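Predict the assembly for these two chains.
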Amino acid sequence: MAEQLEQLLHSPLLVLPLNAVAFLFGLMLYRRSGTTLLHPIVGASAMVAAVLWSLDIDYPDYQRASGLLYALLGPAVVALAVPLKQNLGIIRRAGWPLAVTLVVGAALAPVVAILIALLAGATEPALLALAGKSVTTPVALAVADKIHAAQSLTVGIVLFTGVVGAVLGPPLLHRLEIRDHRVIGFALGINAHAIGTARALEISALCGAFAALAMGLCGALTAIALPLLAGVFN
Amino acid sequence: MEAFRPIAHWLGGAAILLGCSLLGDLLSDRLSLPVPGPVVGMLLLLAGLMIYGSVPRGLALVSSQLLRLLALLFLPAATGVFFLRHLDATDWLAILAATTVGTLLSFTLCALLLKKLLRDGGGERGDG
């Protein structure tokens, strides 16, 4: 009996509903609090961690039992092509300033972060995980896999980056007298991915469209460039 | 038969996503591409959609559903943050500095650059 219970605790039968319930809990917490700081993943992951600890389930076992969710990450990355296609007309109108900013911004975000971390004395696992910090999570996970960075740390960094950019970014630009919604949206999409895009949609539809466009293009560009660079340095 | 049409659309959309994802994995693997398989799949789909000219209804539906569930999909990986053991205090401080200071720095530089380029290029104003 005890053995069967043990098996149930480590099977998808328990773990998948646990994930779903935790996700709904995180979503509710986020909506009730109304603050970007409590992104749904914050409450959800804290709840899962608490359950794993109290039931004494090993993290690798939990991970294995969550295989279905990992399997859906691939199709989710592919699905990003749809909003990208829908927003493609915008880039044709704004033209080359967007293209230049995209390339510079996509390079600047990881370079600045890695330089600061190097100066602060970080070791290689931390530096690798910082490389994908500004791209949307499913892409960052795929990249982390390619350059052998720790997936969990990568997700944590990506989410934290998104929250910092989305919460502190727009007021900062306001102080610098930058009011153009195209500029605010594009900067949010490049530096704060999906969390920044959600924030941009609250500012205006134009702001949101530019953020979604920047997020998609930045993700694709980083996913192509980063593993190439990592290959050169190794 | 009418009633089955939305289901057929949905299944078609899901099949396109799954097919592109598998094809991307296969290409990335067989050709030893540095680009992750799912991203190859995304680029394939984007190219396909640009040739096709519009987004099929079922595909748009499945995509938006999947993207709304993103947080659930990366929940297992995110939970791992609570179980990281091999990083010391220096690493955590460095990561904190890089994500806060670094993000705001690159964010601001990005915005200043685009603002200057748009003004020089004489694009229409986008205040709203």
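DSSP finds twelve helices and no strands in chain A. Residues 2-65 of chain A form one domain.
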